[in-house]
Amino acid sequence: MVHVICVILVITASNKENTMKLISKMTSKRLSISDAEESDINLIIEIEEHPDNRDFIWIGTHEEHLSEINDNQHLLLVFRRADDNTPIGYSLSRIDFNSEIYELRRFVITDKGKGYGREAMKAHLKYAFESLKVNRFWLDVYPDNAVGIKLYESLNMHCDGVLRQNYKADRGYLDQIIYSMLKNEYFAEPSPILSGAASPRWQH
To answer: Residues near 172 by Cβ (< 8 Å), separated by ≥ 6?
Structure first.
């Protein structure tokens, strides 16, 4: 079943070139997705530092997350279950308005194995292509993040390639796999987002 995701945008006065901000929740049947507030930062850092997540994402500081909240080119969002408002994840995106590119920089779901990640990814893609009208959506993922790779390929995202040993972490030099989707692919018939078949392009 396809759920309708509602998005409301506002243009605010600012000295920045682009001031488009998400001010309402993107909602679907099971998720409520809203802009993070400063009071959410401790929760976000706790999610980042959890043993299930910390090997796969960058851990930000309070100051970095506050800067992201206040930056019109970033979207720091919190995911909550719609039925009881329990937080179950967060994401950080950066929008390049000049080049019309949406980068999903961090994406974590804590209530795993229930399809919330897929639902949240569809919300991001819909917002990026239908509301912001970007041309390209992309992200990177470590090769050992099998759950993430399976999700991105199930949405028919294109594997652009591998940045070999591109990031030095405590566990060594890590490759980063780049996945993307273009506007014409999102709006293709049948829609890649609604396709039930995965198109694996990365060999583990």
So the answer is: none
Contacts of 12 (CB under 8 A, 6+ apart): 19, 21
pLDDT for 191: 64
Q: Are 185 and 139 within 8 A, CB to CB? A: no
CA 73 from chain centre, in angstroms, equals 14
- In the DSSP assignment, the letter for residue 58 is P
CATH (domain of 87): 3.40.630.30
d(CA 78, CA 43): 9
pLDDT at 124 over 70: yes
Q: What is the pLDDT of residues 68-109, one digit of tens each?
A: 999 999 999 999 999 999 999 999 999 999 999 999 999 999
Residue 197 inside a domain? The answer is no
User: In angstroms, rounded to a whole number, what is the distance separating the alpha carbons of residues 142 and 145?
Assistant: 6
**Cβ neighbours for 88, distance < 8 A, ≥ 6 positions apart:** 31, 79, 80, 81, 109, 110, 111, 116
Classify strands 20-22 and 26-27 as parallel, antiparallel or unpaired. unpaired
